[in-house]
Structures are given as C-alpha cells and as structure tokens.
Amino acid sequence: MVTINDIARQAGVAKSTVSRYLNNGSVSLATREKLDKIVKETGYTPNTFARSLKATKTNMIGVIIPRLNSASTNEVLSGIDQKARESEYDLIITNSNQDRERELGNIQTLINQKVEGIILLAREITERHRKLINDANIPFLVLGQKAEAIHSMAYSDYEAGYKIGQYAIELGHRDFLFFGVSEQDKAVGLERKNGFLESLKDTTDTTVKIIETSFSKKVAYQDAIDALPNSKASYVVCATDNIAIAVLKAAVELKYSVPEKFSISGFGGYEETDYVQPTITTMSYPYKEMGIQAVENLTKLVNGIDIPYETLLPNELIVKNSTIKR
Amino acid sequence: MVTINDIARQAGVAKSTVSRYLNNGSVSLATREKLDKIVKETGYTPNTFARSLKATKTNMIGVIIPRLNSASTNEVLSGIDQKARESEYDLIITNSNQDRERELGNIQTLINQKVEGIILLAREITERHRKLINDANIPFLVLGQKAEAIHSMAYSDYEAGYKIGQYAIELGHRDFLFFGVSEQDKAVGLERKNGFLESLKDTTDTTVKIIETSFSKKVAYQDAIDALPNSKASYVVCATDNIAIAVLKAAVELKYSVPEKFSISGFGGYEETDYVQPTITTMSYPYKEMGIQAVENLTKLVNGIDIPYETLLPNELIVKNSTIKR
DNA sequence: TTGTATGCGTTATCAT
DNA sequence: ATGATAACGCATACAA
Fold it and tell me: What's the pLDDT score for residue B118?
C-alpha cells in the first residue's frame, strides 16, 4: 500500500506538502507537477480511515432501508442516490431487514462511520431510537412516518385514504372490502385505513369489511381467495398496489370480472399497475421525489439551516380501468 | 465523543487494558465488570476509523450494483445481504448507476475502505477494471458476466436461450419475433440471443425477426406496439421478463389474444410474471441463490481457498399460460 | 511555499 | 493481568 510518506519521499518533499497538494493546494507549480506525476504513477489514493480520523467532515450520508426488494424503497433510494451524487455526497446504504435490533445497530454503525447525516426509512420510532439520535447529535431524517420532535418526511396517508373513499362514494359504491396491513405500520396500516373509514362517515348505508393481510403478494393472494367469495362488496380497497395486484389475480382465478363485478384500487402508483389487466386505479406517491427532497432537507440540517419538523408530500389519484361507477 | 481514553480514565486503568477488554478479553473479572458498567453508561463504541487504521481485517464486503431499481439486482442483493449477515460481514453497497467511470470510482473507494473483498454486478470488464483489481490484490468476484482470468459467477444464458428455442420448436412454432437488448450486455444481449438462434438451426423453415429494444418497459411497450402488427410470428421471445410484460400489454392493447394469436415467453422468473394475464412462461434464474453463493465464494477467496474462475448457475424453464402449441 | 511537530483513537509490542 | 509506548496514515498549527 502506497502512503503519503512514499509520495513525499519519492518527490523529495515533506509529507505536509503532499497533504497540502491533496487538499487546499497551496504548492508551487514545480512541486505540483512533480506530485501529479508520482501520484499518477503510483496510483496513490489517500487512506479514507486515516483521513476521517482527523477530519470533521466525511462527506457521507447514511441511509437505512427496511428491505432490499421493495419497489417503493428502491424508488426513494434512487432519488436519494441521484441527489446525493449531485451534491457530492457519498452514500452508505444499510439494510435493516425489518429487524428493529438491526436497525438500531445500523444507526450506531453509521454514527461510528461519522456520516454527516442519517436518513431512515422507518416504520416506527422508539425511545431507543431517540436516545441514540440525541446522544450522537447528528442530523437525522425519518422517511415514511411522522415522528414527534424528529425531522420527518411523510406522505399524507390519512388524506390519501380519505380521497380514495371519497372517490368510491362518488362512483356510487356503498359496500366495501378493505385489505389492510398491520397497524404497527402507522402510515400504511393505520392512516390509510382511518382516512378511508372517515370518508365514509358522511354517507349512510355503507358497509365495510376489513381484512388484515400482508405486504407479500403471495399472502395477500391467498387471503383474497378466501375472502372474495364471501364478500358482497362492489369496491375493494387495497392498502398497497401489491395487494391490489394480488387481489386482482385472485379475482381472475375466481372468475370475477374486474371492474364489472367489483372495482379495485391500490396505493403506491407502482409502474406494475399499468401492466396488468385491467390497469389498476391507485393513489400515486412521489417516491423518487421524496428521495431527492430528503437529501435536500438533510443537507440543510447539516448546514445548520432550520426546516420544519414535518414535511408532507402530496399524492395524487390516478384513475385507470379497475374502477367504474356502480 | 467518548473515546477509549475516557473509559480508561473513568475506570482508573490504562487504555491498553480497555482495548484488551474490548478485543481478546484477557482481563480480570473485577476490571471487566467495572468496564462493562462504564461502557454501558457512556454508550461508548470504538471508533471505526481508528480501528481500521491499524487493523488488517475490517470484516467488510463491498458490493457494486449497476442500478437501484431492478428486481433481479435486488434479489441478488438480498441473497448477498442474508449470507453476509450470517457470516458476520458488514456490507457496503454502492451504486454505479450504469456509469463505467462511477463503477471504477466505486472500486477504488471500496479498496480505500479496506473491504476484504468486492462483489461486482457487472456488464463488462475492461482493462482498467483488471488493473485496479490486480494492483489492489483483493478478492474480486464478478456476477452476471464471465470474465477472463477473474473469478465470476454467471448464468448459462446461452443454454437458456437454446432451451427456450427448443421448447418453442417442440410446440410446433416456426415463425419467431425476438425482442432483445444491446449486445453490449454480453449475457442478456448476446448469449440469450445466440443460444436461441442456435436452437433453430436443426429445423428448416424457421423465420426470425430480431428487434433490439431496451430494459425499460415503456420503451419495450412502444417498440412492441410498432412491431407486432407487422409480424407473422406465432411465438414472441423476449430477452427479459420486463420486456415480455410490456409486449403482453401491447398485445392486449392491439387486441391480439395471447397465447392464441401468438405465444410469449421471457427470461428471469420475476414474480411479476405470475400476476399478469395470462401468466408468462419464463426461464427462471436463481437470483437470490446467486447472492448467497457469491458471499460463500468470496469468503473462500478471502481465506485463501481456491475456487474455479467460473461458476455457472442453472436456470429452469417455468411453463405458464402464455405459451401453447401451434 | 515548504518543513517540523503533534495529535486523531485504536491496536500491538513489550515490559512489569 | 496490567501499563507504557510506538505505530497506523493523514491533516494542520506553527515555524522557517
């Protein structure tokens, strides 16, 4: 391994000169050229660890994601990646695999790595999260969930649920089947559902059956196969696009035609909803945009610029062919 | 920030004792308990950089992926992640965004980070790659493409293409439309196509029209809209599942019924092919398994155990409802 | 502009 | 079992 000392020796200068050459750059043209040459020849690159040991700035942002094979996560991530690149930040991406202990461990690891800020795609913020974050005194941004007294960016899921309900009511639907997920996930499990339920309150004669299923298509498919035959619903609300796609498959399997027999809608705005038959009406979320804005916000925090604790991103109803008038 | 010195001072011992306590652990019970307490109270964790500055082992594996929003990439990645976790390796995941300069930069970064080995999900290995790898003298594993004199793992894409062709011929098809991608991608663009073409050679009276499209569904969809009306093919071979899904959508749009009007098959074995109508016949690739084996192989290399330069993974034809006899 | 000396937090060597 | 000290590679305050 070639070090700054090697370069200095070969060039016949002090290593501080080399260091200066590498950083602020107050060196004479002659030595600069000499060093240019030697660095190139040797392929020398500064040792990150030695550098970071001294430095206060590492130019790195840490990201913690809940899992690797999620379409929405990866969209957010690619937004983060794009903006981080533009802002000349390096990214450290870690995966918690939906494991809380691992998530906390990842935060600690990132702090040790002296990242300048952490972006956490989270489901729930516990006291231990708070303690860790406070002790480290590091800019921290939670994505996808709101969190008291912590900077966060989230979608207005309650409103999204409400809008879906409103839309369905306007179409004349009164009997609903709702496929949700665990309330542990505040945004997806709780708020979407509550917003939806709230939207029905102004209308009489509505019925709702709620089924808790999973993010997994396979599980959701099976749950739909079980539930659809016993349902009188004319509109099936699915808490995610994946669930909607699975329910659609179950419907096809059971020979219920969609949307004639019942309408289906999802949440997420995944590209995949465009490539099934019928295409699925969905609440679209600006995932990539969230990633971009997350880095922007974090950059502000890093630079001591104040931002509101909570940033809400809009969502938009995309009507496609899976929903019709009753 | 609390350091090993703080701990030592508080415990009234030398920092070397604390270091020993942290590592091999040859300390008396009394001091151990004292240190346990203090470490817990202060929330002390060793500084990664200082550690890595001395240490020869970092316990980190570097991974370079071409993009963040690809289903296959993420499957591989989740296999890598799982096995790395089991093997107590930390992962550094970097994204090249399909940019060669960035890819080379990432390799350099990872080398600087003193990772113990690098896994590269690659399209092409250039001389500059080789130089970098050789100079660093670090275990290196290329995934998805073969590479001369570099350890690699790949699917037998040629064989996969051949098997698809064979299957279609057996079904009685003679007229083909092939949606491929750029030959720059050796595995997907070249080998699948060549294997397929080779399989037709034993049969007379076959016709093939080849169209080069893109990995993007949107582009593939548009290309299919343009190409399908002018095609007399009874079987459409798509070089990826995404392309197959896009072609299917185009077919529906154009009111061609699949598989009656023509059969469609893909490559990849994506879950998504199970959730469209009809479900799509595909060559399934063990993506996650590749990730797992990649870490196993890299671990061997790190430990100086020799493995063959080339590891080929099998693939399997999954027949579904998009292909029928002619 | 350049060189000298010091310190960053840790591990390793060698005494004790 | 424990402590003192050197070393890792680099940045920087200060002196020249």
Answer: 94
How much is the pLDDT for B56? 66
All residues of chain B having their beta carbon less than 8 Å from the beta carbon of residue A74 are 68-69, 74
Which residues 6+ apart lie within 8 Å of B303 measured at CB?
none
**Boundaries of CATH 1.10.260.40 in chain A?**
1-56
Tokens representing B148 are 């001369």
Rg over alpha carbons for chain A, rounded to the nearest Å, is 26
pLDDT tens for each residue of A159-178: 999 999 999 999 999 999 99
Beta strands in chain B (DSSP E): 60-65, 90-95, 117-121, 140-143, 152-155, 175-180, 207-212, 235-238, 263-268, 281-284, 310-313, 316-318
Q: How far is CA B248 from CA A316, B57, B140, B252, in A?
A: 27, 51, 39, 6
Q: Is the CB of A15 under 7 A from strand D?
A: yes
What is the value of pTM for the model shown? 0.85
Cβ A15 to strand C below 7 Å:
yes
If you classify domain B157-286 with CATH, what class do you get? alpha beta
Q: Are B282 and B273 in contact (CB under 8 A)?
A: yes
Q: If you classify domain B1-56 with CATH, what class do you get?
A: mainly alpha
CB-proximal positions of chain C, under 7 Å: 1-5, 7-13
Question: What's residue B71's pLDDT?
Answer: 85
